[in-house]
Design a protein that fits this description.
Elements (H helix, E strand, L loop, with lengths): L2 E2 L1 E8 L22 H21 L7 E7 L26 H11 L7 E5 L1 E4 L5 E8 L2 E7 L4 E10 L4 E9 L13 E8 L11 E8 L8 E6 L7 E5 L3 E4 L2 E4 L14 E5 L2 E2 L1
Parallel strand pairs: 1-8, 2-3, 3-4, 9-10
Antiparallel strand pairs: 2-16, 2-17, 5-6, 6-7, 8-9, 10-11, 11-12, 13-16, 14-15
Length: 276
Amino acid sequence: MGSYDKVQFMSWELHTGPEPRRPEAEAPVYRGLPDQEHDIAARLAFAADAVARAELFSDHRASTLKIFLGPCRLFRGAGADYAPAPEPGGGPAAPPASLRAGLRAMAVGAPYGDWVFVVGAALLGPAGLHDIALVQHRDHDLGRCSATGGALFQMPGVADRDGHAIDLRVVPDLGLDLQRPCTSRPISYALYCSGLCNPDGTCGRGTRLWGGAAPLAGAPWRCVEASRDAAHVGTELVTVASTVPTALGMVSAGRLWNQADRQGAGKVRMIAPLTL
């Protein structure tokens, strides 16, 4: 990586919450494949398709940093959280090794040299004890963040046009409100991608991007607020495949997520490059 004068954000708008329109007395119901490894492989295949389609419409200039964000609980099994993998040395629980390896493999390659991936969070048991998103660049794991509030990451070797280090704050959450960027930097952004049901029980999925120049009187902070495939100035929607091939055959998106009012695996909202 190096110096960048633009940043392009991409948000995968996909409902990853429980089945909508169910009585509140019932426990949340999630879709998925019964075998954990098969479920992970299928979700990784959809993630790879979303990223590949987004890449076709992305800004291909090497001076533009590309950041791809997926919603919380993109990776979650049917009726159960993923069994966490123990960390060497007794550290905190980690997502399964196959999930980490799959995300790393997806990030490696010439088209993605200037990309950072936060491809949704994995819900790890028991009872959602750990809701973790991995931040990935090439074959480097930049860290992890809790999907209940996001996190701020420093990216070594990544700088803006003036040589200032670039920080990354991501919020792959299920319904929390977005807070304005809290930083002393002259230009800052906060990206939010939601996959939760709306209050009326319909499927919710949306993107919020706040940021820009340092706050001045009347300065616009809310750059993008869009959901449910709605058109928004300065953005473009790219449709993700509705089925993907796996080692066990074709898998439809409907077996993993319930979009209710839409078929398939949602859309990626491509936001026009912004100044760094």
